[in-house]
Write a structure and sequence with these properties.
By secondary structure, the protein is of the alpha/beta class. The protein has 20 helices and 17 strands. A six-stranded parallel beta sheet has the order 2-1-3-4-6-5, with helices on both faces. It has a six-stranded parallel beta sheet with strand order 13-12-14-15-17-16. A five-stranded parallel beta sheet has the order 8-7-9-10-11, with no helix packed on it.
């Protein structure tokens, strides 16, 4: 049985590698011993993360930054359940993960055996497909099935809508594989690349809808890079302004305008039609405003088909943004003449005054001056909303966040996964999201990430102070939830650099200086001093 298990697991690992899985994240345990030892023998890019929740979000960040599927390897029992938050985020934000859960065999299920829970299909609709493979069956067909079906599953993670899959692996003892035996040659399956286009009738209808119209382009959060030259060509062709979400990574690459400008436009120059790319915008007011004004929206992107919670995009094109822009750029369509110029003339931005006191609202402006090779990760809640309003980088910059399920869990670990590409990385987070993922600090230390964590510490959940429950009784106990964190002690726990910064001048110097390893910058804040009315609304 050991020979059979060793051979079939080697086929499984090789099948994953054939379909661009180059990173494996292992949460060690007893039941996944054979996979752990074989991955080490194979000398793959292997990260060992002892906390499964942290491991899941680390893999999520790895996949975001690399744009390739990443494999997670869990032992049996509740360990597998701790991957669930990251898998839910991967499903919602279309991130490719291959979740390998090792399990107890059938004779130990539901009879009180320790470290045993129902694992087959446990992630329900948060995975695209779930499969159980009995790798200890000796039939030749099983090995051939592994070669074929595992590659099919990994490929599924990369087909729109992209997302995670689960392979459950029941294993009987003995669990030690035979090391030093030859690795098999698994025939690689070639899935090719498909280009898609609108048919002639649909293209003619689109041309009619856009011709001489006041067109607006909106781009929501996405990890998939847009072709900037094509995007600019189409925007120029249509005379269309571009509203780009902070998590679109478009800002700094093409000319964009803030969403606040749209909401202030006089009626005579409001858009007549909108081309919408990417996921749900950070701005809570954009989609409701378009619906309220009854401005038609065309949604483009195979990952995001049918993902419009405003239920207003009555036209959807199931093709990639690149394919759509390529076809539009080669089609003779002209939007309303001078529309973009009229838009720009209607809004004169007021330059922000330099404040001596450092506040959370100053951070987007200061971090807009990061060097080109740096990348940014934004925590949810108030952080990403602040940056969506005023982050305007002078050059292209990769900006990441977990905006699929909008949770605060795993924030540090995801940023560490992003930083694994060796680019200097900045994470901006609130104190509660920081507290929620303290094990991510050890992962940053362990992986030697060059990561700066900026913690806006207002001692609690700042966003709740802007919601109706701020006036309710028991607010501090139930929603404010102050934790009185000692961030300096947290930094010392993992041998991280630490600074407490209260002035814009000192923070500006930190932005400009090089660093290595993990450093934590605490920016003290006061929830009582938050704006009385948040400009973009909350949702």
């Amino acid at each position: 049985m050991t020979n059979v298990m060793t051979n079939n697991l080697k086929h499984l690992i090789s099948a994953c590698e054939n379909q661009e899985v180059t990173n494996f994240v292992l949460s060690p345990g007893s039941r996944n011993t054979p996979l752990a030892l074989l991955l080490a023998e194979r000398n793959v890019n292997l990260t060992v993360a002892v906390d499964e929740r942290s491991a899941g979000f680390f893999a999520l960040g790895l996949a975001k930054a690399s744009r390739q599927p990443v494999a997670l390897v869990a032992t049996s029992g509740t360990a597998t359940a701790n991957y669930a938050p990251a898998i839910a985020e991967a499903h919602s934000f279309h991130v490719p993960l291959v979740v390998l859960t090792t399990d107890r065999p059938q004779e130990l299920q539901e009879i009180g055996a320790p470290q045993t829970i129902p694992q087959a299909g446990m992630y329900t609709t948060n995975v695209k497909q779930a499969l159980t493979i009995n790798v200890q069956e000796a039939a030749a067909d099983v090995t051939e099935y592994i070669d074929y079906q595992v590659q099919q599953l990994v490929h599924q993670t990369q087909l729109a809508p992209r997302g995670p899959v689960q392979i459950n692996l029941p294993l009987r003892k003995p669990l030690l594989p035979e090391l030093g035996t030859p690795w098999p040659v698994v025939v690689q399956q070639d899935f090719g690349h498909l280009n898609t286009q609108l048919d002639a009738a649909s293209l003619a209808q689109l041309t009619q809808r856009l011709e001489h119209k006041r067109c607006l382009i909106t781009i929501g959060p996405t990890d998939q890079p847009l072709p900037m030259q094509l995007l600019q060509e189409v925007a120029d062709q249509l005379n269309a302004p571009i509203i780009a979400d902070v998590l679109s990574s478009v800002r700094g690459s093409v000319s964009t305008v803030p969403v606040q400008q749209l909401l202030k436009l006089p009626e005579q120059i409001q858009p007549e039609i909108v081309l919408r790319f990417g996921g749900t915008p950070v701005s809570a007011r954009l989609l409701p405003w378009l619906k309220q004004q009854q401005i038609p929206v065309i949604q483009i992107g195979s990952d995001h088909l049918g993902k419009d919670h405003s239920r207003w995009a009555h036209t959807s094109y199931n093709l990639s943004a690149t394919d759509f822009l390529q076809q539009l750029a080669t089609t003779d369509i002209r939007g309303a003449a001078h529309y973009r110029a009229d838009w720009e003339h209607s809004f004169q931005p007021t330059p922000a005054a330099d404040q001596e006191q450092l506040t959370a609202q100053e951070l987007p402006r200061l971090l807009s001056h990061l060097a080109p090779e740096h990348q940014l990760f934004l925590a949810n809640s108030l952080t990403v909303r602040n940056f969506d309003q005023s982050f305007a980088p002078a050059h292209p910059m990769r900006v990441h966040g977990n905006r699929g399920a909008n949770g605060i869990d795993g924030t540090i670990s995801s940023a560490v996964g992003v930083a694994a590409n060796q680019h200097p990385t900045w994470l901006v987070t609130g104190d509660l999201a920081f507290f929620h993922d303290l094990t991510g600090l050890q992962l940053a230390r362990q992986t030697h990430a060059n990561l700066t964590i900026v913690v806006v510490n207002n001692d609690g959940g700042g966003i709740f102070s802007l919601l109706p429950q701020a006036q309710a009784p028991y607010f501090e106990q139930l929603f404010g939830t102050p934790q009185a964190l000692n961030l300096k002690a947290a930094a010392a726990f993992v041998n991280a650099q630490y600074q407490r910064v209260t002035t814009t001048e000192k923070f500006r110097k930190l932005v400009q200086e090089a660093w290595t390893g993990l450093r934590i910058i605490e920016v003290p804040a006061n929830r009582a001093h938050l704006p009385a009315e948040y400009p973009e609304g909350l949702g």
